[in-house]
Amino acid sequence: MDSTLTTTGHDAAADITRPDAALIGALSRLLLPLARLCLTNGVAFAAVEDILKQAFVQEADVLQPGAPSHGTVSRISTATGLSRREVTRLTKSEAPSRPTKPSLATEVFASWTTDTALRDNNGAPCVLKRQGPAPSFEALAQSITRDVHPRSMLDELVRLGLAQHDEESDNVTLVRSDFVPSSDSGQMLGFLGDNVGDHLDAAVANVIRDGRQHFEQAVFADELSSESIETLRPLVTAHWQTLRDALVPAITELIEADRLAGRNQDHRVRIGLYAFAESIINSGAQTKWTDQTPRSEIHHKG
Predict the structure, then answer these.
(1) pTM score > 0.70 for this model?
(2) What are phi and psi of 156, to 5 degrees?
(3) I want to staple 270 with a disulfide (CB 3.0 to 4.6 A). Which of 47, 73, 198, 217 is the partner?
(4) What single string gives the DSSP state of each residue in 142-208?
(5) The predicted structure's pLDDT at residue 43
(6) Is residue 298 within 8 Å of residue 219, measured between CB atoms?
(7) Long-range CB pairs of 244-251, under 8 A, 24+ apart, other chains included
(8) pLDDT of 53
(9) For the chain, where are the E strands, in sequence order?
(10) In angstroms, rounded to a whole number, what is the distance separating the alpha carbons of residues 225 and 1?
(11) DSSP 3-state helix, strand, coil percentages of the chain (rounded to 5)?
């Protein structure tokens, strides 16, 4: 079987002869999943249109930080193509919220799954006594915050389907290795907005600027069987667990070091890994080869 290996990066944007067509193509690719999300949840186009207008107004204002305030509406109207009346209405309405700090339940979960003192000889999260000195769930919760009672924190993890409490033994067990709250669609949508939003912010910054603002790479391959896709899943999961186990303690130490040094703690970071797989036939993707010779294609982007 012939194969090709292609390395591409953000410098390839300079070779695009029709940037407008390329931009429209990229926008179409980005908006299709959003349209699917809206239609699945019964969100009408008019509601999304208003959100898009709001985003245009907000970003047009941000892109002109030094401009005098008295001409703001006119400048935004010129930049966005929206009428002055529409811009005025939108600037007076509540703007879309920026990402917020992760929930305390997320922090407890992260500490429980990465702290070596809370893992057994096989690397799995330990079963913890609900109360008592460390290692216990009470000590874990209090290491994250003392503003929320450990019992309330436990109830939240149980509600999200992430932990179980055995009343008889008074032990707490983590039942998932990843933070996917099965009973909270609102929180899942929050993850969608935060994770994909930051990823898209990084990718857009790289395209608009010099391509080196943020680390963003991916590997793409086609002509795989469904059996091969299933073989890849545990490999991806294992690499993510290794990355997470290294990052969480390191970031925790850096936060504490900044606090002790009195440095201005005004930055945030999000580091992620994603994997996507689908049937080429079902996705309606166009074949890249016109002959009948079996081939495979692997791209490393970055």
Answers:
(1) no
(2) -70, -45
(3) 198
(4) HHH-SSS-HHHHHHHHHHTTSEEEETTTTEEEE--SS---TT-HHHHHHHHHHHHHHHHHHHHHHHH
(5) 80
(6) yes
(7) 244/110, 244/113, 244/114, 245/113, 245/114, 247/271, 248/110, 248/111, 248/114, 249/114, 249/115
(8) 92
(9) 2-8, 128-129, 163-166, 171-174, 218-221, 295-301
(10) 15
(11) 55, 10, 35
Residue found under tokens 């669609």: 185
Q: What is the mean pLDDT of each run of 10 residues along the chain (302 residues)?
A: 43 48 88 88 84 90 76 88 90 64 80 86 88 92 91 89 91 82 70 89 87 85 91 93 90 93 94 89 46 42 52
Question: What values do phi and psi take at 204, rounded to 5?
Answer: -65, -40
| Residue 113 to residues 106, 123, 234, 300, Cα–Cα distance (Å) | 11, 9, 18, 30
Token output for 302: 């970055």
β-strand 295-301 against 2-8: which pairing, if any?
A: parallel
Measure the CA–CA gap between 247 and 212, rounded to whole angstroms. Answer: 21
Q: What is the pLDDT of residue 151?
A: 93
Q: How far apart are CA 109 and CA 43, in angstroms?
A: 32
The residue length of the chain stands at: 302
Q: What is the pLDDT of residues 101-118, one digit of tens each?
A: 667 888 898 889 888 888
Name the residue ranges covered by the structural domains of the chain: 104-174
Give the SS3 label for residue 295. Answer: strand
User: What DSSP element (H or E) covers 35?
Assistant: helix 19-40
Can you give the pLDDT at residue 98?
A: 56
